[in-house]
Amino acid sequence: MDWISCINTYIRVVEEGSFNGAARRLNTTSSAISKRIHWLEERIGVQLLKRTTRSVTQTEAGALFYQRAKDSLDRFQSIIDETRSVNETPAGLLKIGATIAVGSKFLVQYLNDFLIQYPDILIQLTTTVPGQLPDSNLDVYISREIETLNTLSLKQTSLFEQRIGFYAAPSYIEKYGVPQSIEELKSHNVLNWGERPQREYKIAKNQRVMLSGNFATTNPEALFYAAKNGMGILISNDIMIKEDVNSGALIRILPEIQAQDSTVYAYYPKLDYEHTRTKLFLDYMKMRLAQSNEDGAENA
């Protein structure tokens, strides 16, 4: 027996909830599973699992071991995949994190072509709510600049500039008209991102303005749906709603005024070597975004 096979067996037992389930997953017998777990517990010197005739549950030590062991095996597999990809086709799991809005409204549209180009790469996309720090095991995290991420353990590279503007559906404009100034905008129903229906925004020349409405949400899909259905004026960056603008579902208003721009970055671990999958993904995203900017300039 060896450490890796026994640790992998333990992980399968926990995830399947039984020795029989783990045996089916690993194509072996329940007796073999039991021997591996016994070997592991003897070597570590603590009981990892509580066994009854009906169930298998983790001890406190077992729960800690499971999480650490799973993370370690994932990293080990990543090292194997990374080493193989030097002379072979890039392969393995790429863990990407992003804020909900970036992940659901922006990032997903680019992933299909990347996966077609690199069919042996698998992507796991995890989204976070505003203010939530990303998981430390991610290969890439995409977000506006977060000061706490600017540490010695992470590198960052800029992906694109968010040009924030004001948008409304034709049905809203037909009913309430188009505001011609920031002062007029204050009297309109503004859909706000966040937990409060009132929010302060920075606009050009460092001016601050308080805008409010009757609807606020931390769900980007709900926010964009509300805007397209004429509930109010949406404040968004142009990349997120490019398709809605092109289709006429949303119309840019107050084009001469825009909220303060911000940069979206990709954060990734600072390692002695650069993961092939990570580098390929970042190069691909920069290339696609550059093409998108060129297309936008031509159509402007």
Structure description:
By secondary structure, this protein is of the alpha/beta class. It has three domains: 3-81, Winged helix-like DNA-binding domain superfamily/Winged helix DNA-binding domain (Arc Repressor Mutant, subunit A, Orthogonal Bundle), CATH 1.10.10; 92-161 and 263-299, Periplasmic binding protein-like II (D-Maltodextrin-Binding Protein, domain 2); 162-262, 3-Layer(aba) Sandwich (D-Maltodextrin-Binding Protein, domain 2), CATH 3.40.190.290. Helix content is 43%, strand content 26%. It has ten helices and 13 strands. The chain has helices spanning 3-16, 19-26, 30-44, 60-84, 100-117, 170-176, 182-185, 220-228, 242-247, 276-299; strands spanning 49-51, 56-58, 92-99, 121-128, 140-144, 154-168, 190-193, 198-203, 207-212, 216-217, 233-237, 251-253, 259-269. The strands form three sheets. Strands 3, 4, 5, 6, 7, 10, 11, 12 and 13 form a nine-stranded mixed β-sheet that branches. Strand 1 and strand 2 (56-58) form a beta hairpin. It is elongated and about 75 Å long. InterPro entries: LysR-type_TF_proteobact-type (IPR058163), LysR_HTH_N (IPR000847), LysR_subst-bd (IPR005119), WH-like_DNA-bd_sf (IPR036388), WH_DNA-bd_sf (IPR036390). This is DNA-binding transcriptional regulator, LysR family.
Outline the secondary-structure elements.
Layout: H1 3-16, H2 19-26, H3 30-44, E1 49-51, E2 56-58, H4 60-84, E3 92-99, H5 100-117, E4 121-128, E5 140-144, E6 154-168, H6 170-176, H7 182-185, E7 190-193, E8 198-203, E9 207-212, E10 216-217, H8 220-228, E11 233-237, H9 242-247, E12 251-253, E13 259-269, H10 276-299
Parallel strand pairs: 3-4, 3-5, 7-10, 7-11
Antiparallel strand pairs: 1-2, 5-13, 6-11, 6-12, 6-13, 8-9
Helix pairs in contact: 1-2, 1-3, 1-4, 2-3
